[in-house]
Each structure stands twice: as C-alpha cells, then as structure tokens.
C-alpha cells in the first residue's frame, strides 16, 4: 500500500476510534487536524490533505445536533412525500380538530410540549389501517385506523404512540445516522483517491437523499421492532400523564390484532405484530395508576366520530 493511502486509512480509522471516546464531531475534528498537519509536513500532497479535511468536516457537520427548525422542515418534506401516496381527508373538520385537541392534551403534559411549529394531526383518506409520525410534529392517521377505535382513550393511545416516535426522535436519528454513514463512506472512497475532488457541498447533496430514505422506512418497512416497543412504552407514560387510561393502548392493539389479518400492507407491514406489542406493553402498564375518568369522554367521542 502506498504511503499516501496508508495515511488516509489511518486517519479514517482514527476518526472511527475517536468516536468511541469522544463525540463524532470531535472525532471528525481529529481527522481534520491530522490531515492538515500531514499536508503541512509533506507526508501527503496538499490536494489529498484537502480532500480528507473536507470529508472530515462533512462528518462533523453530519454529527451536529439538528435544530428544532431543521427538524420541522425535514419532517415537512417527509410528510409532503407521504402525501404523494395518500390524500388528506377533509370530510369531517370537527373530527380533525378533535384529534388535535387530544394531541395537545398529551403533548402539553409531556416532557417535550413545545416544538418549532407545534404538533399537528391530519387524517389520511384511506381505509388502510396505519399511522405515521414525521420529525417536527407531523402526525398522519388513516380513516381506517380511526374506525378501529372505540373510545377517546383508544385514539389517545394511537396519538401518544406517534408523539412518542417524534419525542424519541426516531426519524431524526435515522436521518443523522444515514448522514454520518454516507460521510464515512465517502471518506473511505477518498482513501482510494476516487473522491479527492468532492467538496462539502457535494457531500451535503448526499444527505438530502435521507428524506427519501425515511419516507421509505415509514411507508414500506416501518421503524425497527425495538423502536416500536420503545414508542409503546413511552406512549403509556404519555397517556398516564395526560389522564388517559394506558390500558386503552393495549385494548386498541387487541382490536388491531383482529382487524389486521393482511400483514403485507399498512399497519401489518410497518409494525411488529399486535401480539408482540401487547406482550411487551403488559410488562410495564400496571405501574401506571390513573383515575378512571373514561365516562366523562364517552359523549364527546361519539359526537366526534359519528
């Protein structure tokens, strides 16, 4: 292996190893400084040093915390992509407003009540049973899923689960991981010289593809099983904090278990089986003791969904 490639590979490994001890941003800074020093002393030529430095900067930028404003606009782009497949249903504005009231009751009692542009719920015009949560507070619930709910608390369970995905930043995490991975891959290519002329702007273009990747995740494959279980556990806490019965989430999952026989589409395709989620949620649901106030919400539920 040529000395130049040895140095490049060393810096790449240094970036990865440093990330185990420090943040990815710090690791990228180490590689950046290393490239500049190697270039200054003539160990590698200046063009190669510049290429490594730019790649390292891209890794650092990728690892930076995404701001609430960026989170909102990323989520809006994801939601817009989803709405090329589904239409927003405006057939019952009162129902949409009702769902948003439930959402606000849960959010305001949650650890993250404020977002850049707030939380919002829209109904998708399809009988498919599914729901989506995009970064920044966008929640999309299908008519088919709403029809499965038999109480306001059941609807609260659906919404709390989606709020949990947003607050746990599952979508943003996958975007950030994708960005870092792409930057590292480009750095690896640079070690072979193929991307020596690639600048930070071109690397940033690669990151834009992550919006499409998260749309694919939401619509086709769903979050990982562990993320779904984490969202359910968090949803139980969110419901209890807002005064909703956490058991209603489990009851809703039982309804879905009977209604979603086709695992190849909608909810069945993007979520673990209801039986798996029920089993997991039952481990912690009894720790929440909430006064039974469901009867106070029965009338407004019937009016809203009729």
List the helices and strands and how they pair.
Layout: H1 3-21, H2 24-40, H3 46-63, H4 68-82, H5 93-108, E1 120-124, E2 131-134, E3 138-142, H6 143-148, H7 152-167, H8 170-191, H9 200-221, H10 225-242, H11 247-259, H12 266-270, H13 274-281, H14 295-305
Parallel strand pairs: 1-3
Antiparallel strand pairs: 2-3
Protein model, in words:
- With 306 residues, the chain is mainly α.
- It has two domains: 3-66 and 171-203, no CATH class; 68-168 and 220-305, no CATH class.
- The chain is 67% helix and 5% strand.
- A three-stranded mixed β-sheet has the order 1-3-2.
- α1 (3-21) runs antiparallel to α8, α2 packs antiparallel against α3 (46-63) and α7 (152-167) crosses α10.
Task: Sum up the overall morphology in one term.
Answer: globular
Radius of gyration: 23 Å
- In the predicted model, the low-confidence regions spanning at least 5 consecutive residues are 6-28, 187-198
| Alpha-beta content class | mainly alpha
Question: Roughly what percent helix?
Answer: 55-70%
Tell me the span between the first and last alpha carbons. Answer: 72 Å
How are the strands of the largest sheet arranged?
Answer: 1-3-2
Following the backbone from N to C, one meets helices and strands in this order, namely HHHHHEEEHHHHHHHHH
Largest sheet data:
3 strands, mixed
Number of DSSP helical runs: 14
Mean pLDDT across residues: 77
Count of extended strands: 3
């Amino acid at each position: 292996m040529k000395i130049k490639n040895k140095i490049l590979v060393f810096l790449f490994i240094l970036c990865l190893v440093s990330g185990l001890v420090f943040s990815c941003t710090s690791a990228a800074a180490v590689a950046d400084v290393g490239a500049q020093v190697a270039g200054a002393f003539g160990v590698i030529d200046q063009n190669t040093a510049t290429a490594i430095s730019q790649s390292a900067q891209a890794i650092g930028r990728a690892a930076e915390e995404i701001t609430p404003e960026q989170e909102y606009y990323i989520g809006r782009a994801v939601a817009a992509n989803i709405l090329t497949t589904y239409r927003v249903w405006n057939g019952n504005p009162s129902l949409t407003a009702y769902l948003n009231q439930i959402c606000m009751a849960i959010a305001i009692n949650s650890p993250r009540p404020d977002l850049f542009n707030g939380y919002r719920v829209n109904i998708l015009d399809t009988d498919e049973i599914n729901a989506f949560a995009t970064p920044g507070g966008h929640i999309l619930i299908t008519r088919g899923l709403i029809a499965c709910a038999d109480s306001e608390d059941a609807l609260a369970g659906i919404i709390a689960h989606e709020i949990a995905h947003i607050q746990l930043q599952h979508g943003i995490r996958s975007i950030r991981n994708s960005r870092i991975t792409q930057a590292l891959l480009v750095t690896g290519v640079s070690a072979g010289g193929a991307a020596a002329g690639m600048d930070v702007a071109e690397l940033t273009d690669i990151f834009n593809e992550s919006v499409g990747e998260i749309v694919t995740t939401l619509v086709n494959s769903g979050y990982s099983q562990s993320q779904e279980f984490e969202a359910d556990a968090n949803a139980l806490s969110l419901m209890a904090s807002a005064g909703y019965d956490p058991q209603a989430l489990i009851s809703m999952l039982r309804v879905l278990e009977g209604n979603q026989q086709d695992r190849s589409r909608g909810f069945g395709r993007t979520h673990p089986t209801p039986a798996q989620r029920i089993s997991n949620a039952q481990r912690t649901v009894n720790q929440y003791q909430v006064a039974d106030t469901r009867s106070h919400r029965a009338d407004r539920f019937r009016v809203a969904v009729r």
